[in-house]
Amino acid sequence: MALINCRECGKQISDQAASCPHCGAPLKATPAPQQNTAVDYQQQIQAQQKAQQKSMVKTMLFSTLLSTGLSFLTRLFYRRRF
Ligand SMILES: [Zn+2]
Predict the structure, then answer these.
(1) With 0-12 CB in 10 A as exposed, 13-18 as middle and 19+ as buried, what is 48?
(2) 13 CA distance to ligand 1 centroid (A)?
(3) Cα-atom radius of gyration of the chain, to the nearest Å?
(4) Gap from CA of 39 to ligand 1 centroid (Å)
(5) Which residues pair with 13 in a beta bridge?
(6) Cα–ligand 1 centroid distance for 31 (angstroms)
(7) pLDDT digits over 14-72, tens only?
(8) Are 15 and 27 in contact (CB under 8 A)?
(9) Amino acid 38: pLDDT
(10) Ligand 1: distance of its center to the CA of 23 in Å?
């Protein structure tokens, strides 16, 4: 937790606060950085979604291979036994 200066009254307030306790000015109202953050956030989400899709494809491929291999091994095993 850090202390920042309120842009309205200049008093020190917590950067975790939603608004200044002295004058009531909202803290997260600086337009330009917020837009950049939103774009960064969207890009992050998109990257995360892409990574998730990739890992999902990998998981699906892996489980398909695994089940195919397992059934193959099971068939081989039972063929030898009976
Ligand atoms: Zn203030």
Answers:
(1) exposed
(2) 8
(3) 28
(4) 28
(5) 4
(6) 17
(7) 988 989 999 999 887 555 555 667 788 889 999 999 999 999 999 999 999 999 999 99
(8) yes
(9) 77
(10) 4
Q: Examine the pLDDT at 80 and tell me if it is beyond 80.
A: no
Residue 37 has what pLDDT?
75
CA of 33 from ligand 1 middle (Å) equals: 19
pTM here is: 0.36
CA of 12 to the centre of ligand 1 (A): 8
| Cα 58 from Cα 2, distance rounded (Å) | 42
- Give the pair of three-digit tokens for residue 69: 């291999």
For residue 38, the CA-to-ligand 1 centroid distance in Å is 25
Burial of 8 (C-beta count, 10 Å sphere; 0-12/13-18/19+): middle
Task: Compute, in angstroms, the gap from residue 26 CA to the centroid of ligand 1.
Answer: 8
